[in-house]
């Protein structure tokens, strides 16, 4: 193992500890209760190192959202890859994302009434934070099997059902699957 690889691994481990501690705080007490001092106590990473590693509280929120988006994308990718049939793969990916969304402590804390609107805005207002990142990843996953309009529509519908669930998961999967089939 080379020295640069060691430091890169150490930095990644430190970031994971910071994000794990942040998840605990946000899930327990909400975004407003998150402070660099509390993250430092729970992660064991000195407070000054947190500022060097991620920057401000807003930057930490962005890193937290990015990691959670990565988890959603990994679930969608796993589900999509399990099916040769595109429509079945899309339905499985949507189902996996919706189930994960309903159980995700960060998302649930962000959506809890009365929370700081900053993190929610990152999910809903800033298109690159979630929509852009997810649309690019899904486009890459589908390759030639999906066109831009289909991917954009399916991502927006799925994110909508994740952020504002109004029907059971299977009903949402059915609705999104019918939209996907219309592109067929």
From TrEMBL:
<dbReference type="GO" id="GO:0003677">
    <property type="term" value="F:DNA binding"/>
</dbReference>
<dbReference type="Pfam" id="PF00440">
    <property type="entry name" value="TetR_N"/>
</dbReference>
<dbReference type="InterPro" id="IPR009057">
    <property type="entry name" value="Homeodomain-like_sf"/>
</dbReference>
<keyword id="KW-0238">DNA-binding</keyword>
<dbReference type="InterPro" id="IPR001647">
    <property type="entry name" value="HTH_TetR"/>
</dbReference>
<protein>
    <submittedName>
        <fullName>Unannotated protein</fullName>
    </submittedName>
</protein>
<dbReference type="Pfam" id="PF18556">
    <property type="entry name" value="TetR_C_35"/>
</dbReference>
<dbReference type="InterPro" id="IPR040611">
    <property type="entry name" value="AlkX_C"/>
</dbReference>
<feature type="domain" description="HTH tetR-type">
    <location>
        <begin position="12"/>
        <end position="72"/>
    </location>
</feature>
